[in-house]
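note to self — DONT lose this again. spent like an hour looking for the file last time. sequence + predicted structure for the chain T wanted, 345 res
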Amino acid sequence: MHIGEWRFLAVWVPLTVVMAIGDWLCRTWGVMTGVLLALPLGFIGLNLLPIVLSGRSPVSQWRLWLTACTLWAIWRVWHGGVAGVFAWSWIGIFILNSAAFVPSVCKHSNAWRLACFIIAHVAAIVAGWTFGWWWAFAGGALIAAWYCLAVLRPSCQWLGPVRCRTGEESILITIDDGPDPHDTPKLLEMLDRHQTKAVFFMIGKKVEAHPDLAREVLRRGHEIGNHTMNHPQASFWCADPWRTRCEIADCQEVIERVTGFKPRLFRAPVGHRNLFTHPVAAALGLQVMAWSRRGFDAVETDAEKVLERIVAHLGPGDIVLMHEATPIAEQVLEGVLSASQSLQR
């Protein structure tokens, strides 16, 4: 923010707090009580709110305050009066901040997808307000169903392009969740014996813990992909834009710093992306990759069942997903390598 914005907010935020408290007092206890107590209680509120809405940095602090003021504005905007004027002003401030934020996240691609998602929510709210809230609930249910399909299906292209096949005659083996001190050396030896190259999608914190293994993967001629910093498999699908960027950008920075190699491929944990994955990946020069064949080896401990799922319809151009740091990593890779070479004969 520039100095003019800081000065405006330094006045407008306290006025909003005092006005909101006074408005509530006037409606609850009467006009005289509200006028008399608005200023002292507003002063107390201004001293308590920074404790409740405290952020680790000025930016996070402002986001918390903006969120709180916007939520209050949405609740109060239709009641009119002075409070309505303040409410509309905060809705306008939120829109201006969003308009400034969206291009910074989506400047490379996919801004229209995010815009459509926001417009759909606005349309559902307007329909509910105009025709009854059952319309809003129905619209929300449809949006939720669309979102779940978009983020939970790894091959879904609705949020942006996802590479699921190689476009070539060869089969690409991809190995997630490394580097692992037990599995990585053994998998590398196995790949060398079969003269096959793979893509290792690595977790940033594991690269920091085992930097030599990451460098060895590159030395053997394989490629490293970005697999987020902490692999938040249970929550990445609903991560906010700042967390999404941190997970991807931090992993990118760690891999590049440790190995000198800048990844060009990104794979989301469990393949579950969110609204902000593609814009962030594009801004960092990353292509999102999923797979076309998987055996669920991260949860299945029977290597034969895993290989049956992968090999049954394995064909040219397939991208195979497997994992290291599992009890069956070696058996799965050996089976995939054998099947792959049988197809090439």
